[in-house]
Specification:
about 220 residues, six-stranded mixed sheet, alpha/beta, about 20% strand, 9 helices
């Protein structure tokens, strides 16, 4: 019974958000000349740092927000990254795939390899030549946790903030980081966004997600 009410509550919230988006889009539509890659943390730590599982409405909102004709793809990651919505042109079929994928998001992994996720979804020189705005939306708690060895975790965080992010800087791509509770590692998330001229925000409920995504993608 609780699960039913939770799903109904999320659906109602999404309806309100999408209606709000429709009004915003009419006055200031987003460009379809974007390439957006969404990375969703499904590590076990997200049970504490995303207690309301805002990742589901987050992907649902993005699915409705992305303009037809833009390009997008969705990866989930914990120990390793995995494509859950293939990268391609956003159309009705792509939106349906993303909507189905959103319902399957849960905290199933053990570790959190943000660097591997960013490498898997990275842009290259050919992407840059297409002339699209390049964006990453990173939904995570920012806790770099690739091993039980603290020294290895420290090295992974250093690599994330330097050589890995440098690839994004080189092609002019922005990494927008979204923490889904105030338990997120704000220091790491803000450092990632700042290095790439992206946006860092914390969302504590579904109502805040639309505003964050609009500000991130509206150049």
């Amino acid at each position: 019974m609780f699960k039913f009410h939770a799903i109904r509550s999320v659906s109602a919230t999404l309806f309100i958000i999408v209606m709000g988006f429709s009004q915003a889009a009419m006055s200031q539509p987003l460009s379809n000349q974007m390439d957006i890659r969404v990375l969703i943390d499904v590590s076990g730590s997200m049970k504490k740092t995303d207690p309301n599982n805002l990742r589901i409405p987050a992907l649902q909102v993005l699915t409705q927000l992305l303009p037809i004709g833009s390009k997008a793809g969705v990866w989930q990651f914990a120990n390793t990254p995995k494509i859950i919505v293939p990268h391609g042109v956003v159309n009705t079929q792509w939106q349906q795939q993303a909507s189905i994928a959103a319902q399957k998001i849960s905290s199933i992994g053990q570790f959190t390899d943000i660097g591997a996720a960013l490498q898997a979804a990275s842009f290259n020189a050919q992407d840059q030549k297409q002339g699209r705005q390049l964006h990453i939306i990173l939904l995570t708690d920012g806790m770099v946790d690739v091993s039980k060895d603290d020294a290895q975790n420290k090295r992974a965080r250093t690599a994330l903030l330097n050589p890995i992010l440098q690839q994004y800087i080189n092609v002019g791509a922005r990494v927008h980081t979204v923490g889904l509770s105030h338990k997120a590692d704000k220091t790491t998330l803000s450092a990632i966004a700042r290095a790439t001229d992206g946006l860092f925000e914390v969302a504590v409920d579904a109502d805040q997600l639309l505003d964050i995504f609009l500000r991130a993608l509206d150049n």
